[in-house]
Model the fold of this input.
Amino acid sequence: MSDQLRWLNTNAKGKLDNLSRSPYSQHSLIVQALTSKDKPKLKLHTLLAINEDSSGSSRKYFEITPLEDYITKLTLIHKGRLILPTMSDKPTWYSIEGITLPKDFLHSMGFDEDPVSGESIFVEADRRFSNQTLDIFCNYFLDEYNAIVNYFNTKADVEKGKSRYYDNYHGKIGKDGKMQPGGQGGRFRYFN
Done:
């Protein structure tokens, strides 16, 4: 993971260029940040354990409760870190610093003053994400859709053996040296 981030920061091996040209990552927050004019330097952080100030002890990731895991990740997101997926069998997890993330606070209730009595009252608030957050989700959908369109646009060439694509994306390579159809590229990755 640290190599991948280093290659993105420096565009080593054309990593950033390749990602920015891919229809699947055109709206990636990482790609957008690194191709902006005020390009940040992304930093990788690893969580190994949680320190307890009151006792001076620490606990490893597998020793914390699900609530502590959730609160820790929320705290890091609030501090502007992008949390990477945690694999179920890994005792650590990563976060990336340097990307500007939206901070939406969705609350159900708020306080206001009753205009007649002057007392504080609870007022129900509408839950709504900011336009910035909604744009992120819409753009992820667009990238997913564009990747599927790209798959079908190149599928005929792949089946004829004109180009080589990834086995798990377009299909297996047959004995004749041609890519066989049946890969997963024509499916939504996260919505199936």
Q: What stands out?
A: The CA atoms of residues 40 and 98 lie 6 Å apart. Residues 129-192 form one domain. The longest helix spans residues 131-159. The two ends are 27 Å apart (CA to CA).
